[in-house]
């Protein structure tokens, strides 16, 4: 298998007892099933979060990715949720890990789904971080990061992030126009 194009995770063996799984009807469709454990296995989208931070000059915070996929390219700060945290905790952790900033005031903005090479699909929860503390610093001391306006922002590597940013900037502009009216 080509290691550079991973296949989505699949259920072939029971992760509890190690037996080979067989397709079995669960009342809705055929699913991988472990007879000894009497348990079905489901493929679901993996939840991830991303952070929308806007500075006073209209720049949006983007980071140069230190990890694959798309290492060296640019994206919104964010990542996969851990099992024991809620969405807001995931936003705070990812933001701190990737930018050194501490989220203070955050609000849910939007949710999207997209196919993923490794997970089959990702459910992305976007949060607007309105206020924050701390100083910007990159996780490895090498990757670049910063606030960039529409005019000077490096291209983002994920379609989902590009669409979210366009919608966020339109929403923010609408809010500003209402405030001024
Ligand atoms: Zn089993």
Name the helicity range: 10-25%
Q: What is the CATH architecture descriptor of the largest domain?
A: Alpha-Beta Complex
* Largest sheet: spatial strand order: 7-4-9-8
Can you tell me the CATH topology of the largest domain?
Nucleoside Triphosphate Pyrophosphohydrolase
Largest sheet descriptor: 4 strands, mixed
Q: Detail the poorly predicted runs.
A: none
Mean pLDDT: 92
Rg is: 20 Å
How far from one another are the termini?
59 Å
Q: What is the number of beta strands? A: 10
What secondary-structure arrangement, pairings included, does this model have?
Layout lengths: L21 E4 L4 E5 L4 E2 L5 E7 L7 E5 L9 E2 L2 E3 L6 H13 L2 E15 L3 E14 L11 E4 L10 H22 L1
Parallel strand pairs: 4-9
Antiparallel strand pairs: 1-2, 2-3, 4-7, 5-6, 5-10, 8-9
The structure holds zinc ion.
Zinc ion binds next to loops.
Structure description:
The protein is α+β, with helices and mostly antiparallel strands and 181 residues long. The chain folds into 2 domains: 10-43; 46-180, Nucleoside Triphosphate Pyrophosphohydrolase, CATH 3.90.79.10. It is built from 2 helices and 10 strands, in the order βββββββαβββα. The chain has helices at residues 87-99, 159-180, and strands at 22-25, 30-34, 39-40, 46-52, 60-64, 74-75, 78-80, 102-116, 120-133, 145-148. Strands 7-4-9-8 form a 4-stranded mixed beta sheet, with helices on both faces. Strands 1-2-3 form a 3-stranded antiparallel beta sheet, with no helix packed on it. Strands 6-5-10 form a 3-stranded antiparallel beta sheet, with no helix packed on it. Strand 1 (22-25) and strand 2 form a beta hairpin. The chain is elongated. 20% of the residues are buried. Bound molecules: zinc ion. The site of zinc ion (ZN) has 7 residues, from loops.
